[in-house]
Each structure stands twice: as C-alpha cells, then as structure tokens.
C-alpha cells in the first residue's frame, strides 16, 4: 500500500509492481498445516522478540532487513498494521497475521469461499431432504 509521499507510488515512470500470489502454490505443495507453519515462521521473522507481536517498529525494521522493503513510509507501515489489527491493540498477533495473509491472497480467498459454499449447500441440502 503506497502513500502519496511514498517513492513506491505508481507513476508512468514507476508503474505499479506486478503482484504474484504464491500462497496457493505453497498451499498445494505444503498442505494446510505446512502453509500455516510457514506463515508462522514468517510471523516470527517480523515480530518484536520481546513482545511476541508484530509492532510498528518491528515491521519497519524487519521489513527492510528481511524483505528488502526499506522504502516503506511510516504511513505504509501503519496501514499494514491497521489492515490486520482486529483487536485494535496497535500490533499483529500470530492469528491476525495469518488471517491477514489469507485475506490478501485472492486465489486462496476464492478457494475458501468455494469450499464454504459447498459445505453450506451440502449441509442444507441434507437438512432439507431430512425434513421432507
């Protein structure tokens, strides 16, 4: 997410980077438990070791060091934290981080939506047949 002041803001000279969603491939190769394990490993790379959560400072520091995203503005980092901070404590715990990663993966979200829809249809289909 780039702010207006960010050097990463898309322009004609610097177009929007192409996003490659690798989570579905990882899920296919690793399975559900393996993917969650890898997301947890990613969380640990970004978290504040003393607090056990991803804070503004830990994300700023580790995004630059680990992910090569040193050009993020303070606004960019704040927006990233706010996007996944469901309990509004100003940080991301491990569950919030994993949920955020799934939410940011369009292909995984679509696959999840299809699975939920199938499960609901199957459950209600079975229920409606039992009532008649």
UniProtKB/TrEMBL annotation:
Any one GO molecular-function label of the UniProt entry: calcium ion binding
Source domain of life: Eukaryota
Keywords in alphabetical order: Calcium, Metal-binding
SUPFAM superfamilies: EF-hand
Gene3D superfamilies named in the record: EF-hand
Domain EF-hand: 72-107
InterPro entries on file: EF-hand-dom_pair, EF_Hand_1_Ca_BS, EF_hand_dom, KIC/PBP1/KRP1
Signal peptide region: none
Name used for this protein in its record: EF-hand domain-containing protein
Organism: Capsella rubella
């Amino acid at each position: 997410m780039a702010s207006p002041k960010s050097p990463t803001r898309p322009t004609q000279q610097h177009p929007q980077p192409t996003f490659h969603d690798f989570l579905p491939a990882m899920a296919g190769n690793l399975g559900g438990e393996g993917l969650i394990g890898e997301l947890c490993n990613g969380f640990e790379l970004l978290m504040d070791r003393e607090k056990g959560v991803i804070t503004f400072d830990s994300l700023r520091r580790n995004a630059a060091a680990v992910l090569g995203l040193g050009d993020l503005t303070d606004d960019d980092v704040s927006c990233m934290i706010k996007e996944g901070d469901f309990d509004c404590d100003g940080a991301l715990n491990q569950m919030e981080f994993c949920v955020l990663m799934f939410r940011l993966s369009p292909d995984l979200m679509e696959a999840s939506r299809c699975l939920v829809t199938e499960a609901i249809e199957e459950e209600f289909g079975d229920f409606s047949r039992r009532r008649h």
